[in-house]
Amino acid sequence: MKSLDEYRGIVSDDILAKIYNKATKLNNKHVVNISSTYQGGGVAEILHNLVCLMNDAGLDFGWRILPGTQGFFTTTKRMHNALQGENVNMELIHKDYYLETNEKFAVFTHISHNAVIIHDPQPLPLIKFMDKKQPWIWRCHIDLSNPNKELWDYIKTFILRYDVVIVSDEQYKRKDLPVEQRIIMPSIDPLSTKNMDITDEMIKSYVELYKIPTDKPIVLQISRFDKWKDPEGVIEVFRRVKKEYDCRLILCGSAATDDPEGVEIYHHLVSNNSDLLESGEMMLITAEDNYMVNSLQRLAAVVLQKSTREGFGLTITEALWKGKPVVASNIGGIPNQIQNNKTGILVNPHDFDECAEAVLRVLKDKKFADKIGKAAKEYVREKFLITRHALDYLNLLIDIL
Ligand code: UDP
């Protein structure tokens, strides 16, 4: 378990002093987080880190998982897609699965905490089945700027019961929601196994373990196999890039247990791109391993994030922290992290040529790539490390408790 002391030298003493000071005001307060998976995706990534830090600061900050069946997660993934603006057939959203799973969880989960933090839509209805005695916070990690109207109207039934809603960006605040809405941006943990400094020997050992070829510059996207992450688009861009520059594409996407669509998308990619796979120009990795992700991000010549929707995009933050040039879509929460041509390059996700040009630019111009990489690391240090995130939560909890 990490302790706050270990962040000295990475962040300012000032921020650590503030965390100790605020946490004293919440000493022994018992807070529970509820999400739907311990593994895969940004929410699990953040909670693994934040929970340790908040406990070290002196709170009892717990985390429970809402278990669900395949049917439940298929429905909640459709909800996720519809909330991000996809035109979903509402008859395929099984409200009975959604409600029954939460109702059952409410029976065997006893909540007597001082505050409850619910993450994303999966456990959102829990509040309806509980005897609410404390503030409840709904922490929404997804892009809510253009939700499917019918679904939004339905889930509002539950959101209205909450005391505070947290979103990741100003544009996700909803004017039609009469509940206090605050912005807390996500973060990465510079000391986690995914982000900590690792030696070249260690990187080499992961290269050998996963048989990652290093004879050509690597163009990398690390993301669940999800249509919003646009892996097909990444491949289209790579096909353009490789005509001008000899390089290799690596797509790394482990499966999240609450995302049943990944396997299908993966098989689709394999069958549509056998030429790239057979020639070794593209490699797909499905293993889940933080050290391997860390190594890949450090090995990459350029990191892509060609999402067409992205609430924030921790994979971008992780690459920026490693001083990598990142080419990413100018959508959702991404421009919060990437100042165009300063901390990375922003592109139109629907313009493959523009995206390929940006990738080629950083592949060819090492000086420029280094310059934006250095600026990117300092930008993350200032804005997107877990210590700032912990402070935001402490301020919120002090306000509501
Ligand atoms: N991730 C991983 N292995 C993978 C794919 C993703 O460890 O194969 C991690 C990634 O490093 C990041 C998180 O999952 O920490 C994804 O968070 P992000 O906000 O980028 O996207 P989300 O999956 O939450 O939409």
Task: Annotate the secondary structure layout.
Elements: H1 13-25, E1 30-35, H2 42-57, E2 60-65, H3 70-83, H4 95-108, E3 115-119, E4 136-139, H5 149-159, E5 164-167, E6 180-183, H6 200-209, E7 218-222, H7 231-244, E8 248-252, H8 262-272, H9 274-279, E9 282-285, H10 290-299, E10 302-305, H11 314-321, E11 326-329, H12 334-337, E12 345-347, H13 352-364, H14 366-383, H15 386-400
Parallel strand pairs: 1-2, 1-3, 3-4, 4-5, 5-6, 7-8, 7-10, 8-9, 10-11, 11-12
Helix pairs in contact: 1-15, 2-15, 3-4, 6-10, 7-13
Bound molecules: uridine-5'-diphosphate.
Q: What would a concise description of this structure say?
A:
With 401 residues, the protein is α/β, with parallel strands linked by helices.
Overview of this structure, please?
The protein is of the alpha/beta class and 401 residues long. The chain has 2 domains: 4-187 and 385-400, Glycogen Phosphorylase B (Rossmann fold), CATH 3.40.50; 200-383, Rossmann fold (3-Layer(aba) Sandwich). Helices cover 44% and strands 13% of the residues. The chain has 15 helices and 12 strands. It has helices at residues 13-25, 42-57, 70-83, 95-108, 149-159, 200-209, 231-244, 262-272, 274-279, 290-299, 314-321, 334-337, 352-364, 366-383, 386-400; strands spanning 30-35, 60-65, 115-119, 136-139, 164-167, 180-183, 218-222, 248-252, 282-285, 302-305, 326-329, 345-347. A 6-stranded parallel β-sheet has the order 2-1-3-4-5-6, with helices on one face. Strands 9-8-7-10-11-12 form a 6-stranded parallel β-sheet, with helices on both faces. Helix 3 crosses helix 4 (95-108). It starts with 12 loop residues before the first helix and ends with a helix. The site of uridine-5'-diphosphate (UDP) has 17 residues, from helix 2 and helix 11.
